[in-house]
Amino acid sequence: MKNKKPKVILLVAGEGKRLRPYTLDRPKCMVEIDGISLIDRQLSILKSVGLNNIVMVGGYKIEMLKQYGIKLINNPRYYETNMLWTLFCAEDELEGDVIVSYGDIVYSREILKSLLKSTADIAVTIDKEWESYWRARNEDPLDDAETLKLREDGTISEMGQKPKSLDEIEGQYMGLIKLSAKGVLQIEEIYKNAVEDSTLLGKPIDNAYMTDLLQAVINAGYPVHSVPVFAGWVEVDTVDDLKSDTTLSRINSIDASV
Predict the structure, then answer these.
(1) How many CB atoms lie within 10 A of CB 155?
(2) Among 23, 125, 35, which Cα is nearest to 78's?
(3) What are phi and psi of 70, to 5 degrees?
């Protein structure tokens, strides 16, 4: 049983408003780069390391995701909720070891293998070479960036806040998380408390972000471990991302790794 592969939960409910017109006829995760969609690439990477127990949580144009023949759960409130709500639409699937991934990213096999090697109860990949990537995507790298502060032991002390300077960002949260069975219980505890309070870090629970949950977990005294990676991934959030040479060159490198 020890060697049982983790289940994967892909959060693919998003509309991708900043990717219009490319998302007018498809979910965000099905937008294509060089003729291949983000979700196809991610599924290929996952399966290349033997991760075949995959669940998708869809919402926007969910019927298009049925073609993958993968267990599909619906977030009917996708248009008014965030990633955290989408994840807990699949609460019944949260058991044992689980990998949670956003649907608008693609990462290399090396990144996935690094995450799989982590023995932490809650492990999060962070890109230590984030700054050059953010500079290629934004005139000001602090635009669309969030704080991420590390302790000496590699655990995260703060994440998801608005940074005032580059010094407050010791890595970029990617949207790729691994949970042990114990880690699942820890995040469920924090989430259930937030549902009872109707708020998480001062936000309505249905509008809270995954980083809010992770910060609340940290605040409760549970360690959230970082898994440092160095480039080797892309996030496609805007039309500029979709069309950029940086995205294409990174995707070509990832494709070559499979």
Answers:
(1) 16
(2) 23
(3) -105, 145
